[in-house]
């Protein structure tokens, strides 16, 4: 079983890397990109009996810093 | 008085911090991140600068979950002193011993230069040898020193006089120009600038020396 964890900076937390990517897109001639947010995707290979609660605990303890980040768990 | 300096894979300021502690009259023991106990009788734990675990995941995140950090947390909970510099500050925010977080510098660049700081409080073992409002010049060397905290946390830090140092010329986008903060009991200090790199005349600048100067004396009476 595989879980995919998406970690993003919270809304309102300035993302200077996303901003740099937005500028670069503009420089390449892609107009109309009004915002870019850059996050992380973490894929976990898990035992078949792993639960969402366990993955949630992993996120809270290590994978995300909930002071500045949000996370979403997806089983694939 | 005894200090322990924690060493993670990727720490690179651990020996500098040990020298600064020794010069201040402390006995220093180095402890490895896999150790499950601090040496007996440790008064202060130093979390050094560097790039623990290659800054993978988030700066300080993996270090904050290493076995020794449980002991560092227990030491702080018992009222022990902790001093985190640079990556050490990042580790302290990741452990939750200090509030807020450190993000990528606003200008996206790694910055390595000496910057002017303002001493915001003298009410701590680390800042008592300075004058309130005094300007000191201390080196910074970081890529992720952009301090962030929500409005409520900031109001608390300011209301409780827990901002230790601010930048006179904000180099990294830190909210409220914050360069270093104290815990509620004022015994844990985390700061991005490196006072241990400006702690003796041979460094060409000894402005950071007073962070360490009175540790032995004050810890003995704490």
From TrEMBL, chain A:
Domain of life: Bacteria
GO cellular component: cytoplasm
UniProt catalytic activity: N(2)-formyl-N(1)-(5-phospho-beta-D-ribosyl)glycinamide + L-glutamine + ATP + H2O = 2-formamido-N(1)-(5-O-phospho-beta-D-ribosyl)acetamidine + L-glutamate + ADP + phosphate + H(+)
GO-annotated molecular function: ATP binding; phosphoribosylformylglycinamidine synthase activity
One GO BP annotation of this record: 'de novo' IMP biosynthetic process
Keywords annotated in UniProt: ATP-binding, Cytoplasm, Ligase, Nucleotide-binding, Purine biosynthesis
Family the entry assigns: Belongs to the PurS family.
NCBIfam families in UniProt: phosphoribosylformylglycinamidine synthase subunit PurS (TIGR00302), PRK05974.1 (NF004630)
Protein name listed in UniProt: Phosphoribosylformylglycinamidine synthase subunit PurS
From TrEMBL, chain B:
The enzyme's E.C. designation: 6.3.5.3, 3.5.1.2
A single GO cellular-component term on record: cytoplasm
Active-site residues from the entry: 86, 194, 196
Lineage top rank: taxon: Bacteria
Pathway(s) where this gene product acts: Purine metabolism; IMP biosynthesis via de novo pathway; 5-amino-1-(5-phospho-D-ribosyl)imidazole from N(2)-formyl-N(1)-(5-phospho-D-ribosyl)glycinamide: step 1/2
Subcellular location: Cytoplasm
GO molecular function, one term: ATP binding
Matching PROSITE patterns: GATASE_TYPE_1
Principal location class: cytoplasm
Keywords: ATP-binding, Cytoplasm, Glutamine amidotransferase, Hydrolase, Ligase, Nucleotide-binding, Purine biosynthesis
GO process annotations (BP): 'de novo' IMP biosynthetic process
Catalytic activity line of the entry: L-glutamine + H2O = L-glutamate + NH4(+); N(2)-formyl-N(1)-(5-phospho-beta-D-ribosyl)glycinamide + L-glutamine + ATP + H2O = 2-formamido-N(1)-(5-O-phospho-beta-D-ribosyl)acetamidine + L-glutamate + ADP + phosphate + H(+)
Record's subunit section: Part of the FGAM synthase complex composed of 1 PurL, 1 PurQ and 2 PurS subunits.
PANTHER family from the UniProt entry: PHOSPHORIBOSYLFORMYLGLYCINAMIDINE SYNTHASE SUBUNIT PURQ
Function noted in UniProt: Part of the phosphoribosylformylglycinamidine synthase complex involved in the purines biosynthetic pathway. Catalyzes the ATP-dependent conversion of formylglycinamide ribonucleotide (FGAR) and glutamine to yield formylglycinamidine ribonucleotide (FGAM) and glutamate. The FGAM synthase complex is composed of three subunits. PurQ produces an ammonia molecule by converting glutamine to glutamate. PurL transfers the ammonia molecule to FGAR to form FGAM in an ATP-dependent manner.
Identification of the protein by name: Phosphoribosylformylglycinamidine synthase subunit PurQ
Organism: Thalassococcus halodurans
């Amino acid at each position: 079983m595989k879980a995919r964890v998406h970690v993003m900076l919270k809304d309102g937390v300035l993302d200077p890397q996303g901003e740099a990517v937005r500028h670069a897109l503009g420089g390449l001639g892609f107009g109309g990109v009004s915002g870019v947010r850059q996050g992380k995707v973490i894929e976990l290979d898990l035992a078949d009996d792993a639960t969402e609660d366990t993955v949630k605990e992993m996120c809270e303890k290590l994978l995300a810093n909930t002071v500045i980040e949000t996370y979403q768990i997806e089983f694939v | 008085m005894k200090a322990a300096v924690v060493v993670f894979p990727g720490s690179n300021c651990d020996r500098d911090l040990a020298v600064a502690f020794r010069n201040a009259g402390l006995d220093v023991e180095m402890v490895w991140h896999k150790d499950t106990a601090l040496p007996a009788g440790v008064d202060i734990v130093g979390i050094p600068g560097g790039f623990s675990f290659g800054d993978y995941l988030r700066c300080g995140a993996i270090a904050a979950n290493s076995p020794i950090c449980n002991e560092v947390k227990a030491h702080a909970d018992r009222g022990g002193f902790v001093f985190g510099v640079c990556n050490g500050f990042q580790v302290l925010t990741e452990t939750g011993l200090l509030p807020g977080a450190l993000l990528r510098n606003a200008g996206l660049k790694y910055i390595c230069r000496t910057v002017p700081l303002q001493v915001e409080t003298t009410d701590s073992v680390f800042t008592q040898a300075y004058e309130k409002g005094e300007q000191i010049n201390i080196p910074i060397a970081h890529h992720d020193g952009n301090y962030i905290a929500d409005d409520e946390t900031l109001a608390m830090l300011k209301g409780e006089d827990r901002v230790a140092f601010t930048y006179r010329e904000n180099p990294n986008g830190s909210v409220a120009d914050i360069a270093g903060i104290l815990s509620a009991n004022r015994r844990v200090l985390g700061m991005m600038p490196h006072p241990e790199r400006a702690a003796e005349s041979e460094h060409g600048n000894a402005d950071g020396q007073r962070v360490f100067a009175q540790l032995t004396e004050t810890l003995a009476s704490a």
